[in-house]
User: Which sequence fits this backbone?
């Protein structure tokens, strides 16, 4: 099969356009429909609880839309008439509500214990009486957090010290028997029955076949990525290898994926037939470590020539760039990275370290300073403080003023 050929720059600009970075940010206040449209375009927004700067799910929209009201995301994610729902799509994620039926095959896999879900099915099977009591409690009392279920063994605290009640509601969340009703307090998930929480039209929507649901997820992935290898496309919604391989072949046969070769990429790639091919991209954005554009590190290195690793779990003395590092997108390149911390008590966004990539130009510190000031204001902080660490610190400090 003959393949279209793309340069590395063409592929990069196609990907940036697909991710919303080739479109200017709104000049006026961001409307709710613009936020929802963006998330529909991305198909999925990863959730993470780390709050050293901002929880990551707020950041992709800021990168693309600018200083939108943060409470707007909370409304569309967890409000009464929300257009999003939570599920395990990439990791824990926010997903357009209309796409809920597309994940029912995964919920069934979790119920059956297929693939990576063996532990979930085993717990639900072995603790069935307890699980049924949890469901009965939520049915009787309405949506509840795991901490409100006073039953079963208590946990030891921490990520892996879940109580029995927490294990039960999480397993039921993965099988689709419970869903997120809302979040409260320190980002605590509140679980409810889908038939009580989700719109009737969604609950009663026909369940597509496994094959059609997976094809549609791949269509969403390639529209959101513009161009990618088979693994890139599979990883967007973490699809099983064999399933993704079969569905990719079917979409190629149908003309819905265009095989392409990208200069410098070892693996063959596939492109959205309707993908924009901008000749120039002039973006300016700080990217969450979990932003859709860069969450798959091998693709980030292949696309931008930058080896990016999150160092949260690396001992402090072994970190290269810092604890919570955000790359800076300038034009169509990643030109810098900054280790940020929101000091809410002092009201300052702290740049704990700042480093330039080899190709950064004279404009990089100026444009980065603009973005940092915008982020500080968006976070409700009064200013930016640059620590003297990293090869960009001096120039960035001067640009901040």
Assistant:
């Amino acid at each position: 099969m003959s393949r279209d050929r793309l340069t590395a720059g063409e592929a990069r600009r196609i990907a940036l356009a697909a991710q919303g970075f080739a479109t200017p940010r709104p000049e006026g206040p961001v409307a709710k429909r613009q936020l929802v449209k963006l998330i529909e375009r991305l198909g999925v927004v990863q959730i993470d609880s780390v709050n050293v700067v901002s929880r990551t799910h707020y950041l992709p929209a800021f990168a693309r839309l600018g200083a939108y009201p943060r409470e707007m995301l909370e409304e569309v994610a967890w409000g009464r008439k929300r257009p999003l729902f939570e599920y395990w799509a990439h990791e824990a994620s926010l997903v357009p509500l209309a796409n809920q039926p597309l994940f029912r095959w995964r919920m069934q896999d979790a119920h059956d214990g297929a693939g990576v879900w063996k532990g979930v099915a085993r717990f639900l099977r072995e603790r069935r009486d307890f699980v049924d009591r949890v469901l009965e409690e939520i049915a009787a009392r309405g949506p509840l957090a795991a901490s409100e279920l006073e039953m079963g063994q208590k946990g030891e605290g921490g990520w892996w010290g879940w109580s029995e009640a927490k294990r039960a509601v999480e397993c039921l969340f993965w099988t689709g028997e419970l869903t997120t009703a809302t979040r409260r307090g320190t980002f605590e998930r509140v679980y409810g029955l889908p038939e009580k929480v989700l719109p009737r039209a969604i609950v009663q929507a026909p369940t597509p076949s496994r094959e059609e649901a997976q094809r549609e997820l791949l269509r969403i992935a390639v529209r959101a990525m513009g161009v990618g290898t088979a693994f890139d496309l599979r990883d967007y919604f973490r699809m099983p290898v064999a399933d993704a391989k079969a569905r990719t072949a079917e979409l190629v046969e149908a003309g819905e994926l265009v095989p392409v070769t990208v200069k410098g990429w070892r693996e063959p790639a596939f492109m959205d037939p309707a993908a924009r091919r901008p000749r120039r991209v002039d973006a300016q954005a700080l990217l969450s470590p979990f932003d859709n554009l860069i969450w798959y590190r091998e693709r980030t290195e292949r696309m931008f020539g930058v080896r990016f690793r999150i160092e949260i779990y690396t001992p402090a003395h072994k970190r290269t760039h810092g604890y919570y590092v955000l790359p800076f997108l300038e034009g169509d390149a990643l030109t810098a990275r900054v280790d940020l911390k929101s000091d809410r008590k002092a009201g300052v966004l702290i740049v704990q370290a700042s480093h330039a990539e080899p190709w950064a130009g004279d404009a990089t510190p100026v444009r980065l300073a603009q973005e940092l000031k915008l982020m500080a204001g968006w976070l409700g902080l009064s200013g930016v403080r640059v620590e003297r660490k990293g090869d960009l610190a001096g120039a960035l400090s001067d640009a901040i003023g």
Summary: The longest helix spans residues 210-225. Residues 353 and 389 are 5 Å apart (CA to CA).
